[in-house]
Amino acid sequence: MEKVKFIDLKSCILQENDDTAAEVRKYTKEKNVFLWNIMSSPGSGKTTFITKIIELIGNQYRIGVIEADIESTYDSEKLVKLNVPTVQLRTGGGCHLEACMVMEALKKLPLDDLDIVIVENVGNLVCPAEFDIGADFPMMLLSVPEGEDKAIKYPLMFTVTDALVVTKIDALPFFDFNFDALNINCKKLNSKLKIFSISAKTGENCDQFVEYLLERVNNKIIKI
Predict the structure, then answer these.
(1) Alpha carbons 91 and 209: distance in angstroms, whole number
(2) Neighbours of 10 (CB within 10 A)
(3) CA of 3: how far to CAs of 6, 74, in Å?
């Protein structure tokens, strides 16, 4: 009897994506642009966080944004009002971005006039962690209302990111959030993970994260 032929479609898809991610890295290096991938669950405050970052460093660095959503242009409209070059990626049901989508969006941004491109990935703690988009800085947000147990439930996300920003710390009086447990669980998965806690609403502790961010940015780009 002839043996069953097996094709691992997931491996094929991921390999193709990884090849394109390498092209994205080459392209952004040529354009002297720092590509930053922000991942989180829905409602963690990605857009508010991005707006705060633009407020804090937008006078020093030229920033563009790639917004990803399953539907709507709600978040991108907020950024356009700030005079930030923005491209909306509407996945129409897709739960993550892939490198080919990011490449297409990059080509629609004025990269010669930008230093940093922020990618707001689709709100999801599972699929975005599996797909490398060629970013120089993959990071995630975790809001206080979500709880500290997400590192246990979604380990891959905490493994593939370089930094974790705990947001909405202004809401701490209203939620039980155990920072010690979060630190222990995260370090088991990723000993190099940098952890910050901020409030994008009030600006509390944002300066600590910005210092870390700009160190990474300046290690990649040549400031004009």
Answers:
(1) 30
(2) 9
(3) 9, 52
Amino acid at the residue 119: V
Lookup: tokens for 25? 């890295």
Dist CA 22 CA 29 (whole Å): 11
The partner residues of 119 in beta bridges, in order of sequence, read 37, 66
The residue count of the chain comes to 224
In this prediction, residue 81 carries a pLDDT of 86
Separation of alpha carbons 118 and 126, rounded Å? 20
What pLDDT was estimated at residue 84? Answer: 94
- Relative to beta strand 116-120, strand 63-69 is parallel
Strands 34-39 and 116-120: parallel
Hey, how many other C-beta atoms are within 10 angstroms of the C-beta on 14? 16
pLDDT digits (tens, 9 = 90+) for 101-154: 999 999 999 999 999 999 999 999 999 999 999 999 999 999 999 999 999 999
**Whole-number Å distance between alpha carbons of 106 and 114:** 11
Measured CA distances, 145 to 41, 43, 172 (Å): 11, 10, 8
Entry pTM:
0.91
Q: State residue 222's pLDDT score.
A: 79
Q: How far apart are CA 132 and CA 129, in angstroms?
A: 7
> Among residues of the chain, what percentage have pLDDT more than 70?
91
